């Protein structure tokens, strides 16, 4: 995969430090081709691999992908089981490449409903890549933004922190990945104009970039286009 970054007007000094992606449209991609939904998910995984590689080569520090929402548990049992097995399969296959490409992987979400064998694979992947110093890939699995906020509140209460000591800095310390900065750029595929309970607390000043392209068709070239557009924006964070 070769891309001439110069063709996309990318300024390496203005790269978003943290990119988040809502990878939407796998099912619709398969339906348009009269294929089972699971084939859309397989193609989506192939695309994800390309985008991780591209972000690593560009020098992006953090990439967070929305792999499976907490609401997705209500999907048909057969599809959920397939997705869990696919996660385990992808983790096993991709960890050697992540290590080689200096990528660290981390998982965020509520893990109580994730099968033990999948959870074991997740922990193994985190341990195997713990010392990688390039791109950090965060995979949101069984994740919900509101659930993360509720879980943070519960941790604060359990810790016994008095109300007068709770500010934004303190609150952020109890999120799933407290050391990770908020996303600079949020990309959503498939044309839906909502954030769908993804990084609810962290995205209040994140720049949004929405495309009608379905996730399996989202190329590295489109990622560069999104970054180029982001770099042309003026971020004031409520100031003048």
Automatic annotation (TrEMBL):
<dbReference type="GO" id="GO:0016094">
    <property type="term" value="P:polyprenol biosynthetic process"/>
</dbReference>
<comment type="similarity">
    <text>Belongs to the UPP synthase family.</text>
</comment>
<feature type="binding site">
    <location>
        <position position="37"/>
    </location>
    <ligand>
        <name>substrate</name>
    </ligand>
</feature>
<feature type="binding site">
    <location>
        <position position="75"/>
    </location>
    <ligand>
        <name>substrate</name>
    </ligand>
</feature>
<keyword id="KW-0808">Transferase</keyword>
<feature type="binding site">
    <location>
        <begin position="194"/>
        <end position="196"/>
    </location>
    <ligand>
        <name>substrate</name>
    </ligand>
</feature>
<feature type="active site">
    <location>
        <position position="24"/>
    </location>
</feature>
<comment type="subunit">
    <text>Homodimer.</text>
</comment>
<feature type="binding site">
    <location>
        <begin position="25"/>
        <end position="28"/>
    </location>
    <ligand>
        <name>substrate</name>
    </ligand>
</feature>
<keyword id="KW-0460">Magnesium</keyword>
<dbReference type="InterPro" id="IPR036424">
    <property type="entry name" value="UPP_synth-like_sf"/>
</dbReference>
<feature type="binding site">
    <location>
        <position position="73"/>
    </location>
    <ligand>
        <name>substrate</name>
    </ligand>
</feature>
<feature type="binding site">
    <location>
        <begin position="69"/>
        <end position="71"/>
    </location>
    <ligand>
        <name>substrate</name>
    </ligand>
</feature>
<feature type="binding site">
    <location>
        <position position="207"/>
    </location>
    <ligand>
        <name>Mg(2+)</name>
    </ligand>
</feature>
<comment type="function">
    <text>Catalyzes the condensation of isopentenyl diphosphate (IPP) with allylic pyrophosphates generating different type of terpenoids.</text>
</comment>
<dbReference type="GO" id="GO:0045547">
    <property type="term" value="F:ditrans,polycis-polyprenyl diphosphate synthase [(2E,6E)-farnesyl diphosphate specific] activity"/>
</dbReference>
<dbReference type="GO" id="GO:0000287">
    <property type="term" value="F:magnesium ion binding"/>
</dbReference>
<protein>
    <recommendedName>
        <fullName>Isoprenyl transferase</fullName>
        <ecNumber>2.5.1.-</ecNumber>
    </recommendedName>
</protein>
<feature type="binding site">
    <location>
        <position position="24"/>
    </location>
    <ligand>
        <name>Mg(2+)</name>
    </ligand>
</feature>
<feature type="binding site">
    <location>
        <position position="29"/>
    </location>
    <ligand>
        <name>substrate</name>
    </ligand>
</feature>
<feature type="binding site">
    <location>
        <position position="188"/>
    </location>
    <ligand>
        <name>substrate</name>
    </ligand>
</feature>
<dbReference type="Pfam" id="PF01255">
    <property type="entry name" value="Prenyltransf"/>
</dbReference>
<feature type="active site" description="Proton acceptor">
    <location>
        <position position="72"/>
    </location>
</feature>
<keyword id="KW-0479">Metal-binding</keyword>
<dbReference type="InterPro" id="IPR018520">
    <property type="entry name" value="UPP_synth-like_CS"/>
</dbReference>
<dbReference type="InterPro" id="IPR001441">
    <property type="entry name" value="UPP_synth-like"/>
</dbReference>
<feature type="binding site">
    <location>
        <position position="41"/>
    </location>
    <ligand>
        <name>substrate</name>
    </ligand>
</feature>
């Amino acid at each position: 995969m070769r891309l001439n970054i110069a063709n996309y007007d990318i300024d390496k000094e203005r790269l978003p430090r943290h990119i988040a992606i809502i990878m939407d449209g796998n099912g619709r991609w398969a339906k348009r081709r009269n294929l089972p939904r699971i084939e859309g998910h397989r193609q989506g995984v192939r695309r994800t691999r390309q985008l991780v590689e591209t972000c690593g080569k560009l020098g992006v520090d953090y990439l967070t992908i929305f792999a499976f929402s907490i609401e997705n548990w209500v999907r048909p049992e057969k599809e959920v089981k397939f997705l869990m097995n696919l996660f385990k399969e992808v983790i096993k296959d991709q960890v050697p490449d992540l290590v080689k490409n200096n990528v660290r992987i981390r998982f965020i979400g509520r893990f109580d409903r994730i099968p033990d064998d999948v959870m074991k694979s997740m922990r193994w992947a985190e341990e195997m890549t713990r010392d990688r110093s390039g791109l950090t890939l965060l995979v949101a699995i069984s994740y919900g933004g509101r659930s993360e906020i509720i879980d943070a509140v519960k941790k604060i209460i359990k810790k016994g922190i008095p109300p007068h000591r709770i500010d934004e800095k303190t609150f952020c310390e109890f999120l799933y990945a407290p050391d990770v900065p908020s996303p600079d750029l949020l990309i959503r595929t498939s044309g839906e104009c909502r954030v769908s309970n993804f990084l609810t607390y962290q995205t209040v000043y994140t720049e949004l970039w929405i495309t009608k392209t379905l996730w399996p068709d989202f190329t590295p070239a489109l990622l560069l286009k999104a970054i180029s557009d982001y770099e042309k924006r003026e971020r004031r964070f409520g100031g003048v």
